[in-house]
Amino acid sequence: MTRRISLTQYLIEQQRQHGHIPQELRLLIEVVARACKRIAISVNKGALGEVLGTAGSENVQGEVQKKLDIIANEVLIEANEWGGHLAAMASEEMEGIYLVPNRFPQGEYLLMFDPLDGSSNIDVNVSIGTIFSVLKKPEGSVGVSEADFLQPGTAQAAAGYCVYGPQTTLVLTVGDGVVMFTLDREQGSFVLTEDEVKIPEDTKEFAINMSNMRHWDAPMKRYIDECLAGSTGPRGKDFNMRWIASMVADVHRILTRGGVFMYPWDKREPGKAGKLRLMYEANPMAFLVEQAGGAASNARQRIMEMQPSQLHERVAVVLGSKNEVERVTRYHLEAK
Ligand code: FBP
Ligand code: AFP
To answer: Is the distance from the beta carbon of residue 121 to the nearest atom of ligand 1 less than 6 Å?
Structure first.
């Protein structure tokens, strides 16, 4: 019988044999995974758990909050605040950072998350997910402030997501490749099901919200026009399109079979760099994609090298199969 490796076993082996992760980080990842299991239970209950629909409030970015956005945010905070591994948390659903209350021990790590990504898919029973990114508090900083979070993606100690779809899958990197765990619902544990996730360098599949095409700038239009031209166009091959409108689900497909995901800059909001958030969406996904052999840029530079200037900063995102990401980036740089 094939040996089943649980998330706990995997993390303990990483800690013991490879020295990749300190004990505090192992604990942190396990706690995040446990929170994801609780979120998965709420997601699965759907209408029976009265978790669908809007909550009647807005988050800091002026977006209408769904009940599950709030539930998932609370589950992640409650699960993580008491363990002693964290100094503070930040979330898409909270304006400022969340300090670990004084009654609990303080740790060295900072946790950021999008508790429920793909909000527009919650009520329609399509895959959604939780995205997380882990940083270390800068050496020598006293207390914790928002500035401690403003580190580039290259500083991430770990990143991952959990996708709530036909299966619940946890995808993780601690900087040594990408691994996937499938939730065994009967046992209640995450079981290792992919230990060397690799994104092919080439692809014939792209993901973008085509309804925004008229708002893109010229290099983005050029890239998509060439894909749409198919085998008789400059690319000499036919492309397929997929758009789930949950970044987790689109990135999961790319980590599984390749492809390129784009959420470009948009003329409608010239002051903003894109729709997606740098700190808790783009950076963790970029870390995963790079660790799987892919690439991630903002169409001009590597996402992981961007210096964030605020917690809820937005960024244009192009990620996935390396040769396509490089092509999109090249088109933008040539047009400068
Ligand atoms: P939320 O954080 O509000 O869920 O927005 C993020 C997101 O849902 C991404 O997961 C997805 O790729 C994108 O927005 C979909 O955008 P659009 O509605 O333009 O298709
Ligand atoms: P299958 O029966 O092979 O799954 O095809 C049906 C279907 O997946 C349908 O559910 C989708 O709407 C459609 O095909 C998608 O087709 P494209 O691959 O052309 O997008």
So the answer is: no
